[in-house]
UniProtKB/TrEMBL annotation:
PANTHER family: D-GLUCOSIDE 3-DEHYDROGENASE (PTHR43249:SF1), UDP-N-ACETYL-2-AMINO-2-DEOXY-D-GLUCURONATE OXIDASE (PTHR43249). The lineage of its organism: Bacteria, Bacillati, Bacillota, Clostridia, Peptostreptococcales. It holds the Pfam family GFO_IDH_MocA. Belongs to the Gfo/Idh/MocA family. This is Gfo/Idh/MocA family oxidoreductase. GO terms for molecular function: nucleotide binding. It comes from Romboutsia weinsteinii. InterPro entries: Gfo/Idh/MocA-like_OxRdtase_C, Gfo/Idh/MocA-like_OxRdtase_N, Gfo/Idh/MocA_Oxidoreductase, NAD(P)-bd_dom_sf. Residues 140-356 form the Gfo/Idh/MocA-like oxidoreductase C-terminal domain. Gene3D superfamilies: Dihydrodipicolinate Reductase, domain 2, NAD(P)-binding Rossmann-like Domain. It comes from the Bacteria. Residues 2-124 form the Gfo/Idh/MocA-like oxidoreductase N-terminal domain.
């Protein structure tokens, strides 16, 4: 049985980590930490038991040698610091996405994992969706051939997160690009199994963020506090010549929306997630387009149906620790995602492409 400490008991801890871990029988949540004490107390009441501990300082939680694993669910600016402290305190780390605010921090996290031998993974739960797993296997089996175009899409028409610190540049390091673009990019790179970057060009926009009394899924935002971009787009060229186009927005005048989606074009076939998962190709001189039926036509009760990526993520992570395997989301891969996001921001700021320096051996 692995003992888990939760650091940050806000939205994603309550929405994903704690309910999922509760269902994993080899895991037990024994400590809850939040700088807002009531949140940690509430988490203990809902997901712990009378022996669970409550902390307001994560450093105190890390002193508990009984804890094997921590889940870090705090704003982006503290991911690196808490992850590194946790690994140095002999804990395995599941850190929420994005890995860190920038690649320097991400690299330090990776180095800490290598130095301490503790496992580190990042919360890209979209990899555990049924459509993603199917497409990943299809790519691995070479059904699409050489994939030379990937389109990563994270477009919302009006769904700006107005709670917490999402609009605050300092706390988050960016807006929709680092928040949701990160998921779509992670999926795309994983499917393409291509992490060898050459150069990146990007643009960011602060357009609809300046609208007063805007229509929004989570209520209107304050334009003065909206210091991150509202949209960001990137064009990424890989060493082997492959192209990735990344579109991300929390507010865009577009009907072509969709989040954590990828489209791939390869020499043998293509795939997209626009309208369910479809794989296209050519056979015997004709074109085909197959729609993948992801639910076995079974009965919910017998696990024939249902898609719970959050639970799959938690289960896979706990298994990887118990069986000493590599996590599905490797920190080296999450670091490349972070490098690309950073390069898009840098390119947008300077109006120039960013050539990516080769990674040093230790980061490969
Ligand atoms: N995987 C996903 O799809 C997904 C979805 C939403 C958010 N996230 C990520 O989860 C993280 C948190 O987002 P959220 O929506 O839960 O935000 P949130 O504001 O709802 O919750 C964050 C919590 O962390 C607490 N906190 C802040 N600093 C702390 C510290 N030093 N020690 C202990 N507690 C601290 C806050 O008081 C708050 O309760 C972000 O990095 C975000 O990108 C991931």
């Amino acid at each position: 049985m692995l003992k888990i400490g939760i650091i940050g008991c806000g939205g994603i801890a309550n929405g994903k980590h704690m309910p999922s871990l509760k269902k994993v029988k080899e895991a037990k949540m024994v400590a809850f930490c939040d700088v807002i004490e009531e949140r940690a107390i509430k988490a203990k009441e809902e997901f712990g038991d009378e022996d669970s501990k409550v902390y307001t300082d994560y450093r105190e939680l890390l002193k508990d040698s009984d804890i094997d694993v921590v889940h870090i669910c705090t704003p982006n600016s503290s991911h690196a610091e808490i992850s590194i402290d946790a690994m140095e305190a002999d804990k395995h780390v599941m850190c929420e996405k994005p890995m860190a605010k920038n690649s320097k921090e991400g690299r330090a996290m990776l180095e800490a994992s290598k130095k301490t031998g503790k496992k580190l993974t990042i919360g890209y739960q979209n990899r555990f969706r049924k459509d993603s797993k199917f497409l990943y296997e299809a790519c691995k089996d070479d059904e699409l051939g050489e994939i030379y175009l990937g389109k990563a899409k994270a477009i919302r028409r009006r769904a700006v997160p107005t709670w917490g610190v999402f609009l605050d540049e300092e706390a988050q390091g960016g807006g929709p690009l680092i928040d949701i673009g990160t998921h779509a990019l992670d999926l795309t790179l994983w499917m393409m199994d291509n992490y060898d970057l050459k150069y990146v060009v990007g643009n960011t926009y602060h357009k609809l963020s300046q609208t007063k009394n805007a229509a929004n899924a989570w209520g209107p935002w304050d334009p003065k506090k909206f210091t991150v971009e509202d949209s960001a787009f990137g064009f990424i060229t890989m060493e082997n010549g492959a192209t990735i186009i990344l579109e991300s927005s929390w507010a865009l005048n577009s009907l072509n929306t969709g989040e954590a989606k990828t489209s791939l074009c390869g020499t043998k076939g293509g795939a997209d997630m626009e309208d369910g998962l479809r794989i296209n190709g050519e056979e015997r001189g004709s074109l085909y387009d197959k729609k993948i039926q992801l639910d076995a036509d079974g009965v919910d009760f017998y696990d024939g149906k249902g898609d719970d990526p959050a639970y799959e993520e938690a289960k896979s992570w706990i298994e990887c620790i118990l069986e000493d395997k590599e996590p599905v989301v490797k920190p080296e891969q999450a670091l490349v995602v972070t490098e690309i996001l950073e390069a898009i921001y840098e390119s947008a700021k300077n109006g120039e492409p960013v050539m990516i320096k080769k990674q040093c051996e230790c980061c490969k």
